[in-house]
Amino acid sequence: GTWSTVNGDLNVAVRVATTNPVTLRGVQGVSRFSLTGTRIAHVVGFGQRVGTSIPSQGGIDGIDVVGNLTAAISEGVPFEGGAGINIAGPGNGVRVRNLKVSNTLSYGLSSQRAFFSNCVIENVIIEDTGNDGCDAKFDYAGDYTPDSPAALEGGNANNWIRNVYCRRNGLRWASLSGQKAALDARVGWNVENCVIEVTTPIAGLRAQHDDESITTPLLGGGAPSTDNDKIRWQAKYANIEVYAYGDTLSGNDSGGNLMEAKGFQFSTYRPVANNLLATGAVQNFWIRSWGGSFTNLVGRKATSINLAVYGNTDGSGHENKFIGGEKLENATLAIVS
Predict the structure, then answer these.
(1) End-to-end Cα spacing for the chain
(2) pTM of the shown model
(3) pLDDT-derived band at 5, boundaries 50, 70, 90
(4) How confident is the model over 169-183, as pLDDT tens digits?
(5) Integer Cα distance of 207 and 198 in angstroms
(6) Is it the case that residue 1 has pLDDT exceeding 70?
(7) Which of 142, 188, 157 is nearest to 92 (CA)?
(8) Are 88 and 56 in contact (CB under 8 A)?
(9) CA 280, CA 287: separation in Å to the nearest integer?
(10) Cβ atoms < 10 Å from Cβ of 147
C-alpha cells in the first residue's frame, strides 16, 4: 500500500480491517509472516486508529510473526515504531493465540490505545523485541474523562493475557527513554499464568493506571471522586514468575536517567495480585499502588530491594494489603510513605 511518512502506525505489512471478523489461521511452528528489508512497519495489524477509525476484530492463530529488528539496526534506521502484532482501538473479541512473535523493532505485541473488550492473548512466546514485549494499553487520556460511563467500564472489560512467555525484551532500552517492560498491562487487562525473563534494565510485569493525571493520590493529591471509581478500575494478576539475570540489569537511558531491572512494578488502583515470584532483579517488587491486595509475594536474591512500597500510609483506609509474603529474602525491605 501507500507508505505513510506522517504516522508510522499507518504502515502495516498484513492488515486485517474488515466489516466481519476474520481470523488468520496457520499451522503452529510452520506458518509465518516475516517482514524483510529496512522499512519500519507493523508486521500484522488489526483495525486502524490513526486517521479513519476501523475497529479491530477477528484474530490470528498458529502463525508466527517475525519483524526486522536486525536489518533495521544494521541500516541505521531510527526508532519510529513497528510492532509484530498491533491491535488498534477500539477492539472487541480479538484473539491472538498459539504463536511466537520475535525480532521486532518496537513492541512484540501491542494494543493501542483504548476501548478494548473481550480480547484474549494466550499461548504466545514473545522474544527479541526492541521495546516492550507486550504493550497492552487501555488509556482514557484524550478519549474521555475518568468519571464517564465509558471509562468506568475499564475494570470490567474482560481482556485477558495468559500463558505468555516473554524473554529478551527491551533490547533497545539504551536508545529510548523511560522504563520499559517485558509485559506492560494497563488496568483494562487481566494477566495470569505468565513466565518472564528479564536481561535488560526493564520491568518484568508493569501494571499501570490509564492516565497519569489521575494518579495524584499516589503523589499526595486528592482521592478519586467516588469509591466506585476505585472498584471499577480493578484488575487481576495471578501466577506470574519473573527471573532476572545477566550483566545488564542497570544503566542509563538516552536521557541519562538510571534504569534498573524490576520484577514487578505496580502503579494502579486496587490491583488484586496473587502468587507472584520475582528473583534476581535490582528491585523485585516496586509498588506504588493505592488500595491493592497482594497475596503470596515471593522475592529472592534481589541485588538491592525486595519490596519497595510507596503511598502505603495515606490514612484513608485504602492502604495496600499484604497477605503472606514471608518468603521475601536476601535483601532489604523498604516501606516508603
Answers:
(1) 53
(2) 0.88
(3) low
(4) 999 999 888 989 999
(5) 16
(6) no
(7) 157
(8) yes
(9) 17
(10) 13
